[in-house]
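ok so I'm stuck.
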Amino acid sequence: MQQPNLSRYIPMSRRRRIYEGKAKILYEGPEPGTLIQHFKDDATAYNARKKDVIDGKGVLNNRISEHIFNHLNEMGIPTHFIRRLNMREQLIREVEIIPLEVVVRNVAAGSLAKRLGLEEGTQLPRSIIEFYYKNDELEDPLVTEEHITAFGWATPQELDDIMALAVRVNDFLAGLFLGVGIRLVDFKMECGRLWENDLMRVVVADEISPDSARLWDIKTDDKEAKVLDKDRFRRDLGGLLEAYQEVARRLGIMPEQERPIVSGPTLVQS
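replied:
not stuck anymore, here's the structure
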């Protein structure tokens, strides 16, 4: 695919806002079929009933997600990601988001442990893929493949493609994080339909970062100290920014002594 002409990059103050979510804003891109994804510092949990702003979080998520999506692209796993533009923004392909959160679980934690009465940290017999319907008002309910196909959220073929992508991404992420002493407990993935002329394919979209994955430090058994993800915010453990910095450092994104530049483009309210 021909790369977009970045000389047409438009300053934020002059861009049209397409969508704003809890952690990101989408703006129109420099060319048709592209968008600019801006990472905010907002931290939310429990369907945004708990909120805060953590200066620098968006910068770290942008860098970590870029690192992961670059690897996925290199491996031939299709994604919406084109390139990072600056400390807070990425150029992405415009896709039609499939209204599902795809959660891949390797270890019992969070809602799965609570739902099934499992002790957190229990290794699952095999990786489990769950689907949640993306609907804030309904608090993203757990749904089955029958629900998904019956209500037309995705076709059976698209579901097969999504599950194949989820398995491949999980295998890659588990190995990537294991290599830097981190256990991939689970992660959330979103997919979208990418249209190229009359052809459509399902691709990985949104982001993959400590906001959307449970990451535990393998080197400690301390239940609180090992957490390197957004559970630090959900569970009032503190140190969220430091945990994300540690993930970035181990992945080689941020040198040992570097601290991220937290300032970025000022959000212009429309």
